[in-house]
Every structure is written in C-alpha cells, then in structure tokens.
Amino acid sequence: MSALPPAIFLMGPTASGKTDLAIELSKVLPCELISVDSALVYRGMDIGTAKPSKDILARHPHYLIDILDPAQSYSAADFRTDALAAMAEITARGNIPLLVGGTMLYFKALLEGLADMPPADPQVRAELEAEAQRLGWLALHEQLAAVDPVSAARIHPNDPQRLIRALEVYRVSGMSMTSHRERQSAQSAVAGASGHGQLPYTVANLAIAPTDRRVLHDRIALRFEQMLEQGFVDEVRSLRARSDLHAGLPSIRAVGYRQVWDYLDGKLTSSEMQERGIIATRQLAKRQFTWLRSWADLQWLDSLACDNLPRTLKYLGSVSILS
User: Fold this and answer.
1) pTM score, two decimals?
2) Is the pLDDT of residue 2 over 70?
C-alpha cells in the first residue's frame, strides 16, 4: 500500500451524472469536493454551466466554484495551484479530496504536472486575435500546423482559446508547445523515482457515462432546453450588458454562452442558437470521451445503473483508497 494520502478523481462527459454520484459518495465517506470545471470558476454564470444550486452547495460545499469574475482568465496552471492547496487542506483534516468535473486538461495537469510554458503576453494575444478576425481561424490553424504539427493535430480549428495559446507560446518563446512538453518529459525521466511534478497522492480514477451514447445526446438536448426555460438568455444578457466583457474572453467562449451571445448579437435566430448550443455541447462530450479513452487505470460506471454507489465503494476498497 502506498504511503501517499488518498484522492479520488470522478470524471466524465457533460450531463453524465458526476455531481450526483459525488454527493452520494460524500454522504458515506469523509470526502470533500473540489470542482474540476473551467466554467464553474466564474461567478454569475450559473444556468449555462449547470452549476449546482445554492442549496446543494450549502449542504455540500465545493472548492473552486465562484472564485473568479468572468472578466478574468483561468489557466490549467492556476487550477493546479488552487487544487493542490485545497487537497492539502482536506488531507490535513483527515478527509479525502474528491475531485469531480469534466475539464480533462485540468485533471491531466494536476496528475502529471505542466510544462514550463511562457506566461501569457497580452500584446501577442491581441495580435493573434486581430489576425483571426482578418484571416479567419482556419488560417491561424494552418500557421500552427507549420510550426507545431503535433499541437495542430490535437487542437481543432474551432477551438480559438487553445489555438491562440499554442501560437502565443511559439511566438513568445521561439519554441513550440510540443517542444516545451518534450523537454518536460525528458526532465521528468531524469528525475526518475523522485516523482518531481507528479501528484503526491494515491489516486483512484473513476469515470461515469451512459453506455449508450444516444442517451447522453438526449440528456444534453434536454438539459439545454431546460437551461433556456430557466432564463439562460437573460443570464447572458446581463453579462453582455457589462462593458468589460466581450466574446473573446474564455468565460464567454464557454459552450452555450458563445451561442447565446451570438443570438443576442443578432448573428443567430433563436432556433439556430438552440441547435448550435446542443451540437457544441455534444462535441464537448465527444472530446471528453477522447481524453477518457486514453486514461490509465480507469474504472467506468454506467450512468443508468442503480448500483453505482456500492460498486464505487467496492472499487475504492480494492485499490486501497479506503482503510
């Protein structure tokens, strides 16, 4: 048995039931919850992120929810710093950190550490944004393919946030993002058993999703429709009324928000906005599945099963998470 303290990762695509299972686990185990979601960090973005209700958060507090204003940016490195601090607090109380969410890049950064990338450069980023407006995102993707084909293969042309970051890293440092990561891997290999940069916990990796992908697609469509009924458009309208928020910010690029923003800008009809919002959410789920398929030592759970809690407890016992 490892001497490292235990932690639980509960991952899965959007609308798969992660939060419900996490809450059930916290009722029977000494767990404290940490959100792993790049949109839930923002205050005032509640409906479109499917943020747990105030009542649920009062009874089952989550770290890293409502910690930033939507005008601010939040990176995987920021998350790793905040999550490690939260995990240390939880472990010091004798409890188990239970990290739940669907931002797979955050999970990976926490588990493996991050390459030493250059910090964001506002001027370079502004230049790239201007180029994108003038030439289109596909042209920027072609630029990335010329200098960093590995990253270009991984980053979709319709993912402007990661596309800009990859080009920014190259323009600021003269090295591709792939080269930075390869250097980090080489340094980790030299470090060997020291585990430098690795997560100092014994981690149980869980994922939950419906075994039938059509069920997930139906859930996504239903949830988006419910968001609209709950006032999602008015929520985005309130954000849009602020002079410091715009469509280029990471918060407003979040799935669903950018479609409603375009609707309020008159670029989409109501039906187009709803259709594109659902499609974008399904595409997000597909990317999340892609991450999960390559995840090592992963225990899958079926969202529709009625025995997920006992199955999870049995698995946690088998991997020595429970004493």
Assistant:
1) 0.82
2) no
